[in-house]
Known about the structure:
The chain is mainly alpha-helical. It is 52% helix and 9% strand. Helix 1 packs across helix 5 and helix 3 (74-80) packs across helix 4. The longest helix is centred in the N-terminal third of the chain and has 22 residues, at 30-51. The radius of gyration is 20 Å and the shape is globular. The chain starts with 29 loop residues before the first helix and ends in a 19-residue tail after the last helix.
Amino acid sequence: MTQSPKAGKDPAGSAQGASVPLPAAAAGGPISHAIFRLARLHRMYAGQLLRRIGLHPGQELVMMHLWELGPRRQTDLVRLLDSDAATMTRTVQRLEQAGFVRRRPDPTDKRASLIEPTAASHALRREVEQSWSTLEDLVTCGLTPDERAEALHTLERLEHNLVEAAADSGCEGTEEPQSGSSARP
Length: 185
C-alpha cells in the first residue's frame, strides 16, 4: 500500500512517506489532500479494530453517545453526530439486529421511539474504549505530549474553519472559487 518515499512526494518534496502521491491537480490543496489520506487510513484502522468486536466505523460513536447520555430519539442522534437521517436509520437498524440497541416508545411523544443501549452493548463498552486507545496510540506514535496537544489544537482549528464555512461566514483572506475559472492567478 505504501509507495516508495520518492513516489509519495509532491513536486515540492513535502509529503514525507505519504501512501498516496500528491497529484498535480491537488497542488493547491496539500493540507486537504493530507486530511483525505489521513481520514482514509484512520477509518481503515478503526474498521479493523472495531470489526473484531462486531462493529463498523461510526457505530461505536452512536454507542458512545447512548452510553453517555442514555436513550435518545433517532433525530437527536442525527444532530449529535452531524449525520443524515438515512445513514442513522441504517446504523440503528444494524445495531438493533446485532442486539446492541433496542427501540421503545418515547413517553413524551407517541409518534417517536427512543433508541437505548442494551445490556449486551454495555459489555462492549470497555472493548470500544480499548479500540479507541489503540487507535490513538497508532496515530500519535512518536509524538511528545506537547506535539499531541498541538496536533489536537490544529485539528480543532481546521474543524472550526470548516464549521464556519458551512455556516457561510467563510474564512477571511481566501478567495471563493469561480465556476469555470481558476481561483488562483
